[in-house]
Amino acid sequence: MTITEAHTRTYGYTDLPALMALMTGDEKHGPAATSTLDVLWVLYDRVLRVSPERREDPERDRFLLSKGHGPMAYYAVLAAKGFLPVDWLPGFGSYDSPLGHHPDRLLVPGAEIGSGSLGHGLPIAVGTALGLRAQGLDEPRVWTLIGDAELDEGSNHEAIAFAGPAGLARLHTVVVDNSSASHARPGGIAARFEAAGWSVLTVDGRDHEALYAAFTAPHPDRPHAVVARVEPKNA
After folding, report:
1. What does pTM read for this prediction?
2. Which domains does the chain have, with CATH numbers?
3. Which 8-state DSSP code applies to residue 26?
4. CA-based Rg of the chain, rounded to a whole angstrom?
C-alpha cells in the first residue's frame, strides 16, 4: 500500500498491519503496541462515540491511552478512522513529526492526554469522570487503556480504590494483560477491581466479539473493567 493509495481508501481491521508497517525507526516498543491492536480497533470501530468531526464535542466519549509507551497501534487506528493523515505515519518518532514515541495531546488529533509514563492514565480518567459529573454531562463515557505492568504503580490502586465507592458508572478501564507485570496479584487482576466494587469481565483480547460483548455489558452504578488477555510479551 502506497501513501497515495492510502488517501483514497476506507480502512478496515485488515489494513492495520500495513499502516503499522509504515512506522519504522528505533524505540518502537512493538510488543506493547501490537498487544493493544484488537482492543483499540473494537473500541474505535464499534463502541466509542467519537469521530474526527466530534473531537471538540462536550458530549463525546473520552478515550485515554495510558499505555502510551507503545503508541503505534493507536496511531494506526487513528489514521484508519480519519483523525490524522496516513502520510504522517512514516515520520513516526522523527524530530519533526507530531507522532512521538509517546503521544502528545497538543500534536496528535484525537489524543485526549499526553501519556507514556506508567500509572497516569487511570487516575486522569477518574478525574475526567468526576469533572464530567460535576458539569452535569451524564452521557459521555470515559475509557482508559492500561497495561498489566502499570498495576505495579501505586497510583492506579488509589484510583481503583476511589472509583468503586464513588460509583463512577461512566468510567471504563481496559487492562491489556500480556503477562509483563512484575508483581502477581492474589486472585488475579480481576479480583483487584472486584474488591474495590467494580464490575469486571475477563476475555480473550484477540476475540473481537468477546471484546465487544464485554465492553457493552451492563454495569449499573459501578465502574467497569475489562481484562483483555493476549499472548505473553516474551513468548
Report:
1. 0.92
2. 3-229 (3.40.50.970)
3. S
4. 17
DSSP structure string for 123-173: HHHHHHHHHHHHTT--S--EEEEEEGGGGGSHHHHHHHHHHHHHT-TTEEE
Q: How far is CA 133 from CA 58, 59, 137, 170, 192, in A?
A: 12, 12, 6, 9, 25
The per-residue pLDDT string of the chain (235 residues; one tens digit each, 9 = 90 and over) reads: 444 444 446 899 999 999 999 998 666 567 778 899 999 999 999 999 999 999 999 999 999 999 988 899 999 999 999 999 999 999 999 989 999 999 999 999 999 999 877 889 999 999 999 999 999 999 999 999 999 989 988 999 999 999 999 999 999 999 999 887 766 566 789 999 999 999 999 999 999 999 999 999 999 999 999 999 999 876 5
